[in-house]
Amino acid sequence: MFALAGLGGLKMHDLLNERSKTYKDIKINAKDLSENEVAELLSANPKAMFRPLLTDGKKLVVGFEPEQIGAIL
Question: What's the pTM?
Answer without folding.
Answer: 0.81
